[in-house]
Design goal:
single chain, 538 residues, alpha/beta, Amidase signature (AS) enzymes, eleven-stranded mixed sheet, 11 strands
């Protein structure tokens, strides 16, 4: 067997069913790599070796029993049975941590499984542990984690994107073939783009949010990371479906065809013939890296050569998306995060014996600066005298943004293609002192969350040695069509030289002398402080 960590999940499924590999072998191989390289990447906040191996043994028994029962029983096994999976650290796993990247939840142990977790267990997947993230999913770089930033395997001095940067980096670094992330304004797609992996945000309501630590409830959605469309489709299939415990989960059937994407590149490519693709001019924003724009135009041209019909369209209210999002999301966050009061769970500081003083002290120590910034913004937007001027107006803009997309579907387009991120992975620390510059990184992704639409990022080559993501946007509940398009693009670019490349600095993660991202940030902070002192003396 080749290096197990380089196998796709669907390849692992074939080996497991034939008996050529065991889930324990696959799990041990991935655990070993993740444990060895995590110091240099900080992609994982918790790796549970004991629990993962126990789950792997159970999966091996399930597969062995199915093999004894015959071909039909093997066929009924989910493709993820016995396959290692990582979870973003805001997904509840009974008895395990769920910090949401925050000190205020340090030491908290979830008393139940999230629906996503329960469905992965039902499928027989092996949960390796929890991945790093921006605190309460508020960020675009995974630098706002209370447990230190994550490094990008393509360049260890750069961010992996965020807020699901740990999951994206873990998949890119071959620590797990698939991982779960969440997307509130681009937090799956943007790190997927920056780490060169597939990342999908499904339609709002496709996946239950029960057991997920909330950021903005009308925007949050759980979705898959994988190294190709077939793996992402298998993970989406495993976790999707109606859940009575989540009133926002939709009673929409999960397409069985998610597990039948073509294995043949030629068969996959045929899907593009006659497909109508819209190219929105507003998504090529001012300040976009020229290399990013070039890769996106090349990708669209390649699909056009394969038979797709590409037409430019206008989504005129896109320019208001950023402003609307940063009113609605903080407003919902200020409400959701009110529950962290130092009384019921997580951090508590009761040194004064006075409730209000202890409440303020707990939240002051437990929340990081970005969370405090957004809670204050949201509380202000919801306050008397400002609700109509800000929050209500932002909701009206949200409706206009959705109507722009509705017009594209009404015109008969099958999909929209656009850049995922206007820039490639930027250096650690580069945008921390400028929140607005950080927010602008999500300009191409957050309109979909406002509209509740599905979107995904697929690798589209490199710019200056760093990954570029092509964003595919679909009509509501069109995840299957989007994944078929993604698989078709994989088919027509299968022989592209960049497809064979591994992350450029991945080998450095095996070296124990390689600085961790925490150490890199400490050096940057020290250098910045020294420069400030020198400036004052001058």
């Amino acid at each position: 067997m080749a290096d197990p960590t380089r196998l796709h999940a669907y390849e692992m499924a074939t080996l497991l069913r034939s008996g050529e590999a065991s889930s324990r072998q696959l799990t041990e191989a991935h655990l070993a790599v993740a444990e060895k390289q995590n110091r240099a990447l900080n992609a994982w906040l918790a790796i549970d070796r004991e629990a993962a191996l126990a789950q792997a043994d159970v999966a091996d028994m399930r597969i062995a029993e199915a093999r004894r029962s015959g071909a039909d029983a093997l066929a009924r096994l989910h493709p993820l049975c016995g396959v290692p999976v990582g979870l973003k650290d805001l997904v509840s796993v009974k008895g395990g941590q769920a910090t949401a990247g925050s000190k205020i939840l340090e030491g908290y142990r979830a008393p139940f499984d999230a629906t996503v977790t329960a469905r992965l267990r039902e499928a027989g997947a092996v949960i390796m542990g929890k991945t790093n993230m921006d605190e309460f999913a508020m960020g675009s770089s995974t630098e706002h984690s209370a447990y230190g930033p994550t490094a990008n395997p393509w360049n260890l001095g750069r961010v992996p994107g965020g807020s699901s940067g740990g999951s994206a980096a873990a998949v890119a670094a071959y620590h797990a073939p698939v991982c779960i992330g969440t997307d509130t304004g681009g937090s799956i797609r943007q790190p997927g783009s920056m780490c060169g992996v597939v990342g999908m945000k499904p339609t709002y309501g496709r996946v239950s949010r029960y057991g997920i630590v909330a950021f903005a409830s009308s925007l949050d959605q759980i979705g898959p990371f994988g190294r190709d469309a077939r793996d992402a489709a298998a993970l989406l299939h495993a976790v999707s479906g109606r859940d009575e415990r989540d009133a926002t989960s939709a009673p929409v059937p999960v397409p069985a065809e998610l597990l039948d994407l073509p294995s043949s590149d030629d068969e996959a490519a045929a899907y593009l013939k006659g497909l109508r693709i819209a190219l929105p001019k507003e998504y090529f924003v001012a300040g976009m890296d020229p290399g990013v724009a070039a890769r996106i135009h090349e990708a669209v041209a390649t699909m056009e050569q394969a038979g797709a019909i590409v037409e430019e369209v206008s989504l005129p209210h896109t320019e208001y998306g950023l402003a609307a999002y940063y009113i609605i999301a903080p407003a919902e966050a200020s409400s959701n995060l009110a529950r962290f009061d130092g009384v019921r769970f997580g951090l508590n500081d009761r040194t004064s014996g006075e409730f209000i003083a202890d409440y303020l002290r707990t939240r002051g120590a437990g929340f990081g600066p970005e969370v405090k910034r957004r809670v204050m913004l949201g509380t202000y937007a919801l306050s008397a005298g400002y609700y109509d001027a800000y929050y209500l107006k932002a909701q009206k803009v949200r409706t206009l943004i959705k109507s722009d997309f509705d017009a594209v579907w009404a015109a008969g387009f099958d999909a929209i293609c656009a850049p995922t991120s206007p820039v490639t992975a930027f250096p650690l620390g580069a945008k921390l002192q400028d929140p607005v510059a950080m927010y602008l990184v999500d300009a191409c992704t957050l309109p979909l969350n406002l509209a509740g639409l599905p979107g995904m990022s697929i690798p589209a080559g490199l710019a200056d040695g760093l990954p570029v993501g092509l964003q595919v946007i679909g009509a509501p509940w069109s995840e299957l069509s989007m994944l078929r398009l993604a698989r078709a693009y994989e088919g027509i670019t299968a022989r592209a030289p960049w497809r064979a490349l591994e992350p450029a600095e991945l080998e450095l993660t095996d070296d124990p002398t390689t600085p961790s991202p925490i150490e890199r940030m400490e050096r940057l902070t020290a250098t910045s402080a020294g420069a400030g002192d020198q400036s004052k003396r001058t």
